[in-house]
Amino acid sequence: MNDLLRRYGKGLTWTFIGLTFFWLIILVVLPDFKLLESSFRPYLPVKEIGGPKDVYTFNNYLQIFGNQVDFNFFGLHFPLAARIKVFVLTIFYSGVVTLITFIMAYPLSFYLAKVVSPKSLPTLFLLLFVPLWVSEVLRSFAWYIILTLKGPLNVFLMTIGVISEEIRWIDGYSPVVVTLVYAYVLFMLFPLYNAMQSLDSNQIEAADDLGAPWWRIHWRVILPHCKPGIASGAVMVFMLSAGSLLVPAIINSTTGNWFTQTIQGIMLEGQDWNAGAAFAFMLLLFCTIAVSVAMRVFRVSLSDIAK
Amino acid sequence: MQINRKFLGHLYMVLFLVYLLVPLAVMSGAAFNASKLPTVIPWKGFTDQWFIALYNDTRIWVAVRNTVLVAIAVVIIAVPVGAAGAILVNSISGRVRAILYGMMVAPILVPGVVIGISTLLFWHQFSVGSGLHLSVLGQVSYIASFVMLLVLARLQSFDQGLEEAALDLGASHGQVMRRILLPHLYPALGAGAAISFFQSIENFNVTLFTRGGADTLTVYVFSKVRSGITPTINALALLLIMVTLVLAVIYEINRRRKARIEAAREAEGRRAEDAELIAS
């Protein structure tokens, strides 16, 4: 602090502090407090706001328990509130997306870091970046086109004779998962590649010379080394998936609702901002817990993830 | 065995690229299909009508303009804010630093839906209505984090002795900032501006809740997809992909040229060294 004053003087130091204050307090902290505060207020007509009925209540949070439906989890049937079901399924399928992206990205990052000649790396990365630069909304739209009932996928499969009639792909959660994987697989690839690239190839060769089979080299040498990269990629992909509104909304599978769509419905269609705040806060709370758990499990710090 | 595995690697790389690019190709192809629905099959003949429809769609061009304006505003605010945060975090240590750093990084991991709703509610209590100005503020709150990380990384390679020297030689604080710190940070600030611009254009979640009635490109495409789609969106997608490709090709050519020059310089250096050795 004193160091700052000495180097940049009073004016500039206060400018730095002022800008940071504006960012962290006005743009981040206070809005989140307001979110929490609003979530306890009832939804009232404009006239009654501030009146006797305007008292703090848990009703907004209790809304999540309404409307019991049947929940079928791998053959186990039990009744569950519709919104809790959506919440649970959103988290579950975000985990599935994270796992699939990891399985897809791991061999490729190994290939990029250890197999391919460094000369062709920049070109390969450019090719990988091109889809990333194309807007997410358009990438989701592309999958919507592919998966529609009369779309290219069904026609292709019918032409080669794998299926005899059109399959309804846009049904349930699988189209959402497929599109999320496509949208976010690169967010898994780059941190993994970074971690793998920092591994000394001699370690792999040493393990190889000592007679370790290839799968054990991966399990005992490469995977442990990549832990920070895995943590970073997994947290990124999981958060992006669980928080994604665009992908599930574009795919628009009526039987595959995402929790963010529930929030959007309450906020924009129901215009109940207080209940929306309560649901948004639940999502925020869950994300905070999820990130902390991931940090504990992988024993990494926030700065590792941010890399 | 070794060669076999290498071949598998190449094959996987190619398949992965195909996987990434085929959906984009399908989407682009549909832009030329005369069918009223955006699809490549059945092929009803080649047409350019969707590009003409796109050109005549005024709402889309308003959305494009809005997107660019929001992105510029985000860059103007997020870059100084993020840089100031990085300089501040870099100058302190201990617990306060850890807390401040955590607060600065956390917005990246907060779902956009939460940022959008909290921004909307916060400004609403001061009677600031929704609109693109709120979208800008909401986007800055997490985009500044990216700038902060880039600038902080760059600050690690900064030699503070230079500032000390300048101060000893009588430079003012403003001069130290302008002539020594900022020039060192330019690459990070440039990268930060580029990322901010890109992130802002991509943003959907924050914008959807804060935009009021205004459209940005992502929101417009989204509403189009929900309310009866025409292949105009595909025409737009093709144009955007072309822009991306052209930029990528320019970048690649530029990089190769630089690499060639670098290689030539190195070769010359080696020749000079050899000549010196011989001469001695």
Question: Explain this structure to me?
Answer:
The complex is a heterodimer of chains A (307) and B (280). Chain A has 307 residues and is mostly helical. Chain A folds into two domains: 1-39; 47-306, MetI-like (MetI-like fold), CATH 1.10.3720.10. Chain A contains 14 helices and two strands. A two-stranded antiparallel ribbon of chain A has the order 1-2. In chain A, a hairpin with a 2-residue loop joins strand 1 and strand 2. The longest helix of chain A is centred in the first third of the chain and has 38 residues, at 2-39. Chain A is globular, with a radius of gyration of 24 Å. The model of chain A has no long low-confidence stretch (mean pLDDT 84). Chain B is mainly alpha-helical. Chain B has a domain at 58-230: MetI-like (MetI-like fold), CATH 1.10.3720.10. Chain B has eleven helices and no strands. Chain B has helices at residues 2-29, 49-56, 58-91, 95-109, 112-124, 132-155, 160-168, 173-202, 205-210, 217-226, 232-279. In chain B, helix 2 (49-56) crosses helix 11. At the A-B interface, helix 1, helix 3, helix 4, helix 5 and helix 10 of A face helix 1, helix 3, helix 4, helix 5 and helix 6 of B.
Question: What distinguishing features does this structure have?
Answer:
heterodimer; A: 307 residues; mainly alpha; MetI-like fold; two-stranded antiparallel ribbon; 71% helix; globular; B: 280 residues
**SSE ordering of chain B:** HHHHHHHHHHH
Query: And the CATH topology of one domain in chain B?
Result: MetI-like fold
| Sheet with most strands of chain A | 2 strands, antiparallel
CATH architecture of one domain in chain B: Orthogonal Bundle
Ends distance of chain B: 50 Å
Proper CATH architecture of the largest domain in chain A: Orthogonal Bundle
Considering the protein shown, what is the CATH homologous superfamily of the largest domain in chain A? MetI-like
Shape of chain A: globular
What does the average pLDDT of chain B come to? 86
Give the CATH H-level superfamily of one domain in chain B: MetI-like
Give the helices and strands of chain A as they follow along the chain: HHEEHHHHHHHHHHHH
Q: Beta-strand percentage of chain A?
A: under 5%
Task: Please estimate the helix content of chain B.
Answer: over 70%
Whole-angstrom Rg of chain A:
24 Å
The CATH topology assignment of the largest domain in chain A is MetI-like fold
- Helical/strand content category of chain B: mainly alpha
User: Residue ranges of chain B: pLDDT <50 for 5 or more in a row?
Assistant: none
The count of helical stretches of chain B stands at 11
Q: Which structural class matches the secondary elements of chain A?
A: mainly alpha
